[in-house]
Design a protein that fits this description.
Layout (H helix, E strand, L loop, with lengths): L22 H5 L5 E2 L14 E3 L4 E4 L2 E12 L2 E11 L4 E11 L4 E10 L5 E10 L2 E10 L4 E10 L8 E11 L3 E11 L2 E12 L6 E7 L3 E11 L6 E10 L3 E12 L5 E12 L22 E15 L2 E10 L4 H5 L1 H6 L6 E7 L3 E8 L8 E16 L6 E14 L16 E13 L2 E3 L3 E14 L3 E4 L5 E2 L3 E6 L2 E7 L1 E4 L3 E13 L2 E10 L4 E19 L50 E16 L2 E17 L10 E10 L2 E9 L7 E12 L2 E13 L2 E13 L4 E10 L9 H4 L6 E13 L2 E11 L10 E11 L2 E5 L25
Antiparallel strand pairs: 1-2, 2-4, 3-4, 4-5, 5-6, 6-7, 7-8, 8-9, 9-10, 10-11, 11-12, 12-13, 14-15, 15-16, 16-17, 17-18, 18-19, 19-20, 20-21, 21-22, 22-23, 23-24, 24-25, 25-27, 26-27, 27-33, 28-29, 28-32, 30-31, 33-35, 34-35, 35-36, 36-37, 37-38, 38-39, 39-40, 40-41, 41-42, 42-43, 43-44, ...
Length: 827
């Protein structure tokens, strides 16, 4: 369970001056009383001002003040009935109706002892308020500026005299902005205790206790539970234990460990282990994905995941990283970690040693195929030297480059889908040496025109090359040929691997980038409604001419390691490696990183950027922005056509309740395609928020689709609101005839829907609803419709805080409008 706890911080340290040599002289001073002596070590020399309505005097070197005592120092104000200040020990004893104010927080109590030098505080019957938390305790003690301890304490975020929820603990340790440790703790809803734990570790960054019951059609009824605790007295080593049950799959358990240590806790790592006894390993898989042919005895398949990640600094400029994952089988992630599988279906396995200097980086990478059901480009190992762009010999000429050498191997996946006629392609390997060097000469001509001419040379050598030959004996970029039955791929024929001798590819590149800006101010443009405080128009034309000559063997005759992923055998370009991405490739090096796919090209990219800027929050705000560009292709090995699509990147964010983003491509030739990704958010009234999105594509390698989405939040009353999210598929792929054959949902279908009713419970908002997901035919859940019930409890003052008990679909989408929302185009 997460609790956002701010530690007691007395602001700028209280500083004071010692009492005069003759304290009795100071006793004769009437109010206000002020200690005025020379500063001592570690003190700034500022005086502590003490005033009172009653008696004020010095006695045995201690300043006393009574009745309506006020103490002021450097932004800190303290009020109490009686105070005693000892300049020798720097302690102030506060008695009766104690109130302490600083710039952000308020504390009160009956007795407190505060030390000006150490900034430690001890109090009795103490209470405090540091947003969003309110607390009270029988006793309170600050061990340091970052650690505080309380006994018989109660915490809540409610402003009411009768809080609607809270945590009562016999003892607690609070670590500033980091974590809270509770002993003998009870969580209350109103005055009703709902859960008791003898020990609870509450990180301010992630959940502690978590209990998640529910139902999902791919898991059945389930109960997921986890408990996190710290090993030791700090949070440098955190452990989380998982105990889960799914009625369709059985029992599973796991242990996660997180560590951080060293200078500024910069060494960080994580260990994840999860073990499942799967009673139905073959259910809920995509067509053709037979997990096992013969389940083990008792119909239980033992499945697991082991993940280890670590970043470890050997020196300030030298560190090692590890990212390792061992899986029992190729569908484990989709079956047990569906959310992570959506963005990381194939975890990596590599160990890297990196040395960073001001002008260069040296890295040694080892990457291998730990899971033989996942295709991997292995580096066994690879050493790389990267040189930052730096002036050459103090001249206005800049140099940058990279050099690498390594033993590389492309290891294909085995027959992980159990196709009866599947043939695993032959793996290939080579020792590759690659070196790239580039010179650039940034220039500003006439005081306004920016030009950057550049020229570079690359040599890539392999100890042997090769290519694939299809059944007709023709060279192909594809290692295998899929065979379909009734539109479904049921087997794969491996193409023949043809080895050749030593291969060297010299590559030359040259280019020039240019741009200039024209701006004009319109100070008279003022509009409160549109958020305009003056207006500036910035007009920036730009261009990038890039030429590459690739000598030696053709790309098709070079083993592909760092490569573009081919789109399909029916849509080949000059190189055969048309990328799956719809976006234009980088024209500059080393940004273009597909080393083995580099081919001859001549491309001119022309564009115009337009900005409308206004003043906002003492800065400059982009009120309107559009970037329009197009590629003119002399030779483009990756896309057919002499001219690319016309691209636009458009954002319009005039005010906080209105935002529009549109990324689009429209065809300029018959070989082009149309793509539009839209996101539009508007809050026309305090009680209504609407988010509309769309992901549209037409005629990209025979694929067409339109998936609009809409999310609505409607506030009915001060306590009740409704919200709904829907994702549609309006038309199917141009080449598909059914969901089964294409993997695309049929036209005019509802892919995802979620409906919630929300109740404001003062401190919490409770949401109750359901969601339905219509999975596509080749998705991770195999053309199934998923159902899930949803109960979400959100703390209003800290939305990231979750209840230790919640009910949610295991693959539920994040909240509409969030940065991780998969309904947002581009995510």
């Amino acid at each position: 369970m997460i609790f956002f706890i701010g530690a007691i911080n007395m602001g700028v340290p209280l500083v004071a001056q010692e009492a005069p040599a003759d304290p009795m002289q100071q006793a004769l001073v009437s109010t206000p009383l002020s200690s005025e002596v020379a500063p001592t070590n570690n003190f700034s020399g500022k005086a502590v001002e003490i005033t009172a309505d009653g008696n004020t005097h010095f006695e045995n070197g201690v300043a006393f003040a009574e009745e309506n005592v006020q103490i002021h120092y450097n932004g800190i104000s303290i009020y109490c009935d009686r105070a005693e200040y000892n300049p020798e020990t720097r302690d102030i004893l506060l008695i009766g109706h104690v109130r302490i104010y600083n710039n952000t927080n308020f504390f009160s109590g009956e007795r407190a002892l505060y030390n000006l030098e150490t900034k430690q505080i001890r109090g009795l019957e103490f209470a405090g308020d540091f947003a969003p938390l309110k607390f009270r305790a029988l006793s309170f003690n600050s061990v340091s500026q970052k650690e505080f301890r309380a006994r018989d304490a109660f915490m809540t975020t409610s402003d009411s005299s009768s809080p609607d929820w809270g945590i009562r603990s016999r003892a607690m340790r609070i670590y500033n902005k980091d974590r809270v440790i509770f002993l003998n703790t009870t969580i209350y809803v109103g005055k009703v205790p709902i859960i008791w734990v003898p020990y609870m570790y509450a990180s301010l960054k992630q959940s502690g206790i978590q209990i998640q019951p529910g139902y999902d059609s791919t898991w059945g009824g389930y109960l997921l539970s986890s408990y996190m605790y710290a090993i030791g007295n700090d949070d440098h080593l955190l452990t989380r234990v998982h105990s889960d049950y799914r009625s369709l799959r059985g029992y599973a358990m796991g242990l996660d460990v997180e560590d951080k240590f060293g200078k500024n806790d910069r060494n960080t790592g994580q260990f994840i282990s999860y073990y499942a006894w799967d009673a139905n390993p073959n259910i809920n898989n995509a067509p053709g994905q037979q997990r096992i042919v013969n389940p083990t005895s008792g119909n239980f398949e033992q499945r697991y995941r082991l993940t280890f990640t670590q970043k470890f600094y050997l020196k300030d400029d030298l560190y090692a990283t590890a990212d390792l994952t061992k899986l029992s089988d190729f569908t484990f992630m989709q079956n047990y970690y569906p959310v992570e599988n959506a963005y990381n279906p194939q975890p990596d396995n590599n160990i890297t040693l990196t040395k960073r200097n001001d002008d260069s980086t040296i890295s040694l990478v080892t990457r291998w195929q730990m899971n033989n059901f996942q295709e991997t480009t292995e580096r066994l190992p690879e050493l790389a030297f990267d040189f930052n762009q730096e002036p050459l010999f103090g001249l206005p000429l800049f140099y940058d480059g990279t050099t690498s050498i390594g033993q590389l191997q492309r290891s294909f996946a085995i027959n992980s889908t159990n196709y009866p006629n599947y043939q695993t392609p032959s793996s290939y390997n080579a020792t590759r040496f690659d070196t790239f060097h580039q010179l650039s000469l940034p220039q500003t001509l006439f005081g306004w025109l920016s030009l950057i001419p550049k020229i570079g040379m690359r040599v890539t050598a392999y100890n042997h090359g090769g290519d694939f030959l299809n059944t007709n004996g023709a060279i192909t970029t594809f290692p295998n040929t899929p065979i379909a039955t009734n539109g479904v791929i049921t087997s794969t024929h491996a193409n023949n691997l043809n080895w050749t001798g030593t291969t060297v590819r010299p590559i030359f590149n040259a280019g020039i980038e240019g741009s200039f800006k024209i701006s004009r101010n319109f100070e008279g443009v003022q509009s409160r409604l549109l958020g305009l405080d003056g207006l500036r128009h910035v007009f920036q034309p730009y261009g990038n001419l890039s030429y590459v000559y690739a000598g030696g063997p053709n790309v098709n005759q070079v083993f592909q390691f760092d490569r573009y992923i081919p789109n399909g055998a029916n849509n080949l370009t000059k190189s055969g490696y048309q990328p799956s991405s719809t976006q234009l490739q980088p024209l500059n090096f080393p940004q273009f990183a597909a080393i083995d796919t580099i081919d001859t090209w001549t491309i001119m990219r022309l564009g115009i950027r337009n900005r409308l800027q206004t003043r906002r929050d003492e800065g400059t705000h982009d009120w309107f922005y559009i970037d329009s560009f197009i590629d003119i292709n002399g030779v483009d090995p990756y896309r057919n056509g002499s001219v690319s699509n016309f691209n636009n990147r458009f954002t319009f964010n005039p005010i906080s309740w209105l935002a529009l983003r549109l990324d689009s491509q429209v065809p300029t030739t018959s070989q082009g395609f149309t793509e539009m990704n839209l996101q539009f958010d508007i809050m026309p009234a305090r009680w209504l928020q609407v988010c509309v999105g769309s992901a549209y594509i037409n005629n990209y390698n025979g694929i067409s689709g339109n998936q609009p989405s809409v999310s609505v939040q409607w506030k009915l009353t001060d306590h009740w609101s409704l919200s709904a999210t829907q994702l549609y598929n309006l038309n199917e792929s141009a080449t598909s005839t059914s969901t089964t054959s294409s993997g695309y949902a049929p036209g005019n279908s509802l892919l995802y829907q979620r409906y919630l009713i929300n109740r404001d419970l003062s401190s919490w908002i409770v949401s109750l609803g359901a969601d339905v997901r219509n999975n596509q035919g080749t998705s991770t859940q195999g053309n199934l419709t998923q159902y899930g019930a949803v109960i979400v409890c959100t703390l209003k003052d800290a939305p990231d805080v979750t209840m230790p008990f919640h009910l949610n679909a295991p693959t539920a989408n994040p909240s509409p409008g969030s940065s991780a929302n998969p309904l947002i185009p581009g995510n």
